[in-house]
Amino acid sequence: MQKYIFPTAQKKFFYGLGLSLLFAFLDFDFLSLAAFVYSIVVLFVYRVKQVHNVAHNPEEVSLNVSGKVVAIKPSDKEHYEKMVVIESGFLDNGSLIVPMNSEIKNVSFKRGTRLDKKDFLFTKLNEMLTLTLEKEEKKLAIVHILKKSPFGLEFFAKEKQKLQVGEIYGYGCCMVTTIYLPEGFSLAIQLDQKVNAYETLLGYFPKEN
Length: 209
Prior knowledge:
Layout: H1 7-25, H2 29-45, E1 60-62, E2 67-74, E3 82-88, E4 95-97, E5 102-110, H3 122-125, E6 128-135, E7 138-146, E8 154-155, E9 162-163, E10 168-171, E11 175-181, E12 186-187, E13 194-195, E14 201-204
Antiparallel strand pairs: 1-14, 2-3, 2-13, 3-11, 4-10, 5-6, 5-9, 6-7, 7-11, 8-10, 12-14
Helix pairs in contact: 1-2
């Protein structure tokens, strides 16, 4: 079961399925159907992305989220040259995939509200996961901010943990992700492009001399 649905969602799935059977036994057809639909929604939203390991060039970086590229612009963070903003919806797979072999240098996970993206307090109060991935001189900063969503962010790793490309480090449905890129990073994506975690190439670090 864990191969197809996140462990945190399994209780929700079986809870809905159990209620559906109970209501069916009591002849509450509408409630039985509603509970069954709830289980199907949980199964769909919390589905685990199936990743097939392939050889990666050390300079390559995959996308860590699925969604649509809504902005590519100069970085508002020191030490980074540009940033890419990706918006994810309910139909996008919520698996957060490690984009490169790296170590988590810094991480901050803040529970919060789920305000609309247009609210001026969106970046201050909403649920947020911030982390920095680093390997030798290669470094990325990633910020996930949850939008209006009944499903919370999940983080399965920890600070100083070494990660391999293709591993799942978290979950997020309906959110805004900002990826901060260092100087010299070559992008392989463009504005308004639909992207898939792990399958779409984000770009390349400059080759070491």
